[in-house]
Protein 1
Amino acid sequence: MWRLAICSSEPQAQSVAQHGDDADSGLEERLGARLLNRSTRKVSLTEIGKSYYERCVHILADMDEADNVVHALHLTPRGTLRINASVAVPSLLAPVIAEFTSLYPEVKLSVTMSDRMVDLVEEESTWRFGRHPYRTRASSYGA
């Protein structure tokens, strides 16, 4: 993990230089360039330091933007929802589908109507509406 101290003023740079000399010199050593001009009274950025600082500000802004994009994508449902329903339930399902599509416009619905037994995994269906395929009148699951 990289530690980056961004200073917006000379007093801040002085404080960072006093408390972070090891980190600063380690960064300068790793880069092979001097980033700060240091004296007993003043610390300022070198030209290379200014360039490095400006690039880091852009990188941090890009990271913030990337975080925001991921956050927005995570919050908004999208993709395809595959539904398999019995031919007996369209009147019950239609209002639900209408409301769902208005609430989540980025979700594409793929609805199949069938009374045959469906393998949800094989046919990549997400939901099945209808009679339980293993339930019979004599089933231990109840009526």
Protein 2
Amino acid sequence: MLVTIASNSDNDASQFVNFFPEGLIIPKNAKIGVVNASYVLHEGYIVDATNNTFQLRLANMVDYSTITVADGVYKTADDLATAIQDALHAWLATQSTEVQVSFPVDQQTVSANQQGNEITIHLTFASEGKALDTLDSAGGNINAFIKDVAKAAGNEGQYVNLSSLPSNNDNYVATGDGAGNHFWLASLSKIGQNFYAIAEVRPQEVTTPQDMFLVHREDLAKANSPIRAQVNASSKVLIYELINGIHTQINVGTAPEITPDATIQIRLPAIESSSTQPHHAEYYLTTGGNEVEIAVDGTGGRYNVLPSDEFLLKYEFEGGSELGILPSQGDDAALNDAVLDSSINAAGGTYLAGDILTQSGSSGAGINVKVQAVQVGGMGAVLDYVLLSSGEGHSPGDILEFTGGAGGGFKLNVDSVQDNYAVTALGATYVTGTGVALNGGSGAGATCAIVSVDGSGGITGLTITNPGEDYNAGDVLTVDGGDGNAQVTIGAVVDSLVLIKGLQANLVENPPNQRPLVLYDSIAARMNTLSNLINCRDRYHGNGTLDISSSSEMVTNNRTASNLHIQLDSIGGGIESREVGVNGKTVAIVPLGDNSNAHAGLFNNELFNIIYHNLKNPEPLMNNELAVRLTDYQNNIIKSLFHPVTITFDIRPELE
């Protein structure tokens, strides 16, 4: 009598029970043997601290970084590949902007082959088109305020968020901050393409000396910059190149003049990697939509851009914004009824961050208010602003109208007023004069002119001549000289902001076929402990892609046995097992897997030399179930078996 039992999803493939509702009649003194056994085997891969790491160095990374695969037992090579890919993607999300731009997460894959004995880690550099990218690292803002000249060199920080005024820690701009904010320009021939590099900027303030310059990635010092475009104090654009070790101005004739929101652009040529011909940068100025190449003189030599050159774009101001400065208009005693507190009445539209707006009208009698938009929202509505001049003659409740900038419709409510400054203690023995220091308060640097005194030398007329900075409304300043008792009380202060807009760079093959901002395509891998599992060697490529594949067929590291013991747990009075060295319940021993070393797949075993075992039943039995356990020789359950498992038994009666 042949009886077949099978596992299903309701039970464990390694130990299961089949029930016989009508009973299974077993004749007395019967014998039982196994005719056939089939099972699905996935021995799987154990990942732990001994084999769970590999390392990558991508884009402009200085050193290798370690990626850790989650520990666990992975049933198939596909499952293991998915775990490695998940670890790779999680690691990429923590890397610098350059790495993430160069190697987008969704393009980096890990897969197993159809046979399940090879895994490939596929890394690829992204070379799809991309427009000019703004060089910022603090969100989507494209502008930055510059304050402290000592920190305006472009190598100590990043873009400033425009949601508020700059603080003492937000006063410089850079495209490289020593961490994850390096954006390289390159004229290298890579991935079979020759790239055309562009760097550009739009300064709002053009009367402050400032520089856009390219420095080699190996040497970030401005003094060694070979290519430089400077806006001088007269708003002229001067071009400098490093020629024979000397920074030399190479403009032809009169240098062009820049206006606010004009764009300065440096362009690097595309160069064949084997080229020996001289190649030079080009310079362009765009004003009001009109683009003009800035003429340069090459008779004294030019800087020769080499195929191996890679540059970092940096921007520097020689002066900075001033916060908390004192009003310095020419009133003898005070600027009366200046705007102290204000709020937006109408946000207007189509403005740009940095726009300077001048009062053009008022519902009252006040004049001379000037503001600067520091944040704009959708459709160019002004969201935040600063007072550049607080005017005079205003009253609470006045509504002020403005003109200027790129938009229109902006209005302010005057919420409160106060004299900007006033002589609140006359002192004595003062004399008229200029350059008189104002001491005290929260700021520094302010001076005044004493324009009139009374018979006791008390100050009756005073004008601020140097506004200083970092003062606060309410500061009380002492006038130097005299008896030292004259005081000026500050009612309000204003800010003067220097603004840079849209510092950008990219690499362009030939417009309109544009290339990414970051093009640095070296890929290096150290397989580290993961090589113990998937037989991969350390690899290096420089052409934009790298496949790291198993160098030989993978072998499961979860091999627990060579043979499968089929045991019957519930039948009759027991079994007289004829298998040697087993626990008395084994009715057959079959190979686990095969000799291919794959240890995965569906295996079927036909037993041609069936060994029959006596059942200890002197009388016929009615059995309602058969319970099977599949173990190794030490009676340990084989956990790498999966549904369906089927076993066919032959139950034979006693021979008469």
Protein 3
Amino acid sequence: MAKQEALKTAIQCRHYAMCKIDFLGTGLCPPAWDKHYVSYFPQGRMDIYAALAEGRIPVTRRLVDIAESCSLCGICDKQCYFVTELRPLTVMEALKKWIDNHLQQGLEITDPEADDLLSDLWAIVGQEWASHDPAILVSYAHDPGPFTGIQMPRYVVLPGSTEEVSQVVTLCQKRKIPYAVRGNGSSVMGFVFSKDGVVMDLHRMQDIQINKKNWIVSVGPGVSAFDLQSEVSKEGFRTNLAEPAALVCANIMCSGIFSTYSNAYGTAADNFVNAEFVDAKGQIFHLNQREAPNLYAFQHEEMPLPGICTRVDVRLHPKTEDEQGLLIPFAEFQDATAFARELSQRRIGLALAVLGLEYISTFIAPTVELAHKIKRVFQEDLGMEYAVLMIGDSYAAQAIKSMSEVTMDGEMMKTLILGLPKLVDREWQSLIQDLEGSQRPYETLLKSEMLPIIKAILLPSPGSLAASVTPDLQEFFAELYSRPELTDMVWLNDFRIISSRMGRDKHVVAFIVYVPLDNIPLIQEINREFQKTADEYGIKNDYGFLTPLDMGKRAVLEYDYYGDHTDEEETQRMQQAVMAIGRVLEDFMLRYPGVKWIKYVFNQGFSRKESFLYT
């Protein structure tokens, strides 16, 4: 029974790589600090245990070292539960027990012999940083994406410099062996694998150099969004970054980086000043070299990787002391989107987004169960379906409050977050039932003058919210939510640690589409087609968010499909749904200028945004 439970947890790993960043201040899994291979992180051990249980890998000396290096400290349980509600510590215990039993029984321990190519890789990076051990390879072999499957590489190599990357590429070209480049693997769509080839993991290259005078920060390819934001925030800056575990160089290459701050800071080439690459022949070039390949250009076709980005000089943006967040609730999508567009056109706010309730409820609730209940409260009790998020200074906040009768400020959001469990209680329901008039409940209840009453009913506190999680983690969650940043809309948008919860219920397949913001009916039609297609195949789905771009002329839209990647039948339905909606999106692009599926921006993230927004 224990083995079955451990396996059930192990195969549910979402591969979001959140265990590779210290986003809760708990520290990292101790061996991970200097080992770097994914196998030494909780995510890797989950993959290893699943592979052992399914008979896909043997016990090797490296596997023994991986298992024995785990101290059962429990950091992984806190991190993973916060994001997915999974408890990986049971898997770590099961892995150690498996290896202990194997050793006690005197069973075979294999040690794969080095071949010529591995020896050549060792000559480049050192013996510690290249491996063909199955216990290393298996953690680079799959992700939860619906089209991925098992793609076992032959080698994994961790270069430590641009020169070493160049030499590895040159070697692979000489030996005619395929290679793939891996950031943190958090794209989870099968893009970072090399079946029977080489996977190049850039995790060791974590250099950060801040140049305050030139308003840039030079970033190595192993630096995550969370770690970069942490460093620049100490100097009073922010950078425009995406998901916290995503590696910055890889994220720019893949998608150009978009976030709620793209309203003010832009996307793609707006994010950087220069970048360094290693091309397919192993040659090193910089974007600002006159003879360099023109990566600022865009072609409307699926493009191969133009090179490996080994450094990027990212733009820094100053923060002001009066920055704050507001949520403006709406019942209708068209009203929320029109309002967000107006704010963008008027240059009001830095970050802007039209958020759906699936996002809002999932992000602020620490459990799936509570998120489902809160979503119902917002929809059925308050009459609210969307909210416009704004991050800006006090002048922006003042302007918005003059434009909208109902705004939810930082104190209101902190009250709601810390009082979430009581939102489903009878006293809150009684307050709503006592309301009279033609207005929607949120238009009355969420006004600022109602805050004292809301506080009296919800009794918000870290302990109250913590009571909704599993008992043995309640003390940890109470301490965690005592920290002001966990309820601060500005901090949460800068560091985005709660957005990783979007795949908590099931693995998420996110569809990103650039759309013309002056045609809201078209955007609504695209959303309806997303929903219609997913419903046809029985796939859970929901609207995600929309952020204005280029002062309200365009926007980036996300719609999400959710599937259980461990269910073969559901995965097949997800595959069919993805292919079907792909055909729909192709048709939209043919019929409407300004509609662009991010599929065509992939590997062209260094291009100018104008090249794909207006073509």
